[in-house]
Amino acid sequence: MDNWTEIQLEISANDIDRAADIANMTVPYGIFIEDYRTLEEEAWEIAHIDLIDEDLLQKDRSKGIIHIYLEETENPNEAIQYLSERLNAEGIKNTISTAVCKNEDWQNKWKENYHPIEIGERLAICPTWITDYNPNGRQILYMDPGLAFGTGSHDTTRLCLETLEKHIKGGETLLDLGCGSGILALAALKLGAKSAVGVDIDPLAAKTAVENGKVNAFTPPAFSVFCGDMTEQIRDKFDVVTANIVADVLIIFLKTARQFMKPNGIFIISGIIDTREEDILNSIKENNFTIKERHESKEWRCFVLT
Description:
- It is a single chain.
- Mean pLDDT is 86; it is low at 45-49.
- The longest helix has 14 residues, at 76-89.
- The protein folds into two domains: 3-112, Alpha-Beta Plaits (2-Layer Sandwich), CATH 3.30.70.120; 117-305, Vaccinia Virus protein VP39 (Rossmann fold, 3-Layer(aba) Sandwich), CATH 3.40.50.
- The protein has eleven helices and 14 strands.
- It is of the alpha/beta class.
- Helix 6 (155-167) runs parallel beside helix 7 and helix 10 runs parallel beside helix 11.
- Strands 10-9-8-11-12-14-13 form a seven-stranded mixed sheet, sandwiched between helices.
C-alpha cells in the first residue's frame, strides 16, 4: 500500500488541544501535530533534542496544523465531513485541505527539520541520514536527534562546544559529567583529544552515547561510557572535565570535580541560565575554583575553571 491521503487541519493555536481530540477520532493510529507555541522549551526539556532548523523556529506560533493520514482503503470525504461537523459544532474555526503522499513521505517527514550545523571553526554536526554534506575541512560529528540530550544547536550546547574547541589542541584526556548523548566527549575526540570518558546516571543516555560513539567509529579505550554515580565509576584524572547540565547539578559537581582533574586541568561548565549565574558564582567561590574564562550566548553562560 504505497499511497496515503493526508488531511491537513489548520486551526488557531489556542484550539489545538480540542481539535486534536476530535482529529484522533478519525484514525486509530495517531496524528501528527504542528504546534510551535513552546518549541524550544519542549525540545529542551521534554524531547531532549536541540538540533532545530532555523526555518522551524520561524514558524507562525499563532496557528497549529494537525496532519491526519488515511490508508488507501479509507474514504477521506467521510473523515473530512466528520471533522468539519465536529469542529464547527465546537466553534473552532478551521481550514481543511488534502493531499496524496507516499508511505515513506510522512514516515520520514520529521527529518526535514534537521540539517548539518557548523560550530566554531573546526566542527560540523550532521544527522546520519544526510550523505551529501560538504564539510569544507571541518570534522564531521554524526549525531541523530534521540532520547538523550545534546545534538548541538541549542545555545548552551553550542556555547560549550565552542569553548571546548579552544582548549582541545591534540592529545588531551577528557571526562564529561552527565554526558547525555556523548556529544562533548565525541566532539573532543573529533577535535584531536587522545581519549574521552562519559558518565551519566541515566541508562538510556549512557546507551545512546555508546551508540553515537560507534556511529563515529569511537569505541574503548578511546571512548568509554559509564552509567552511575561518577565518584563510584571514575578513578582517573583528566586534562579537561566538562559538564553541560542544569545549575543545581553543576553545584553538586563543583563539590567533587576536583578529584578528577589533573593539577593543570580545566573544568568547563555550561547549561547555566542567566538567572542562576549568581548561584553558580557562589558555588565556584565556595569550592575554591578560579574563573579563567566566562562566555555567554543569549541567556546562557559558560565558565572555564581551574
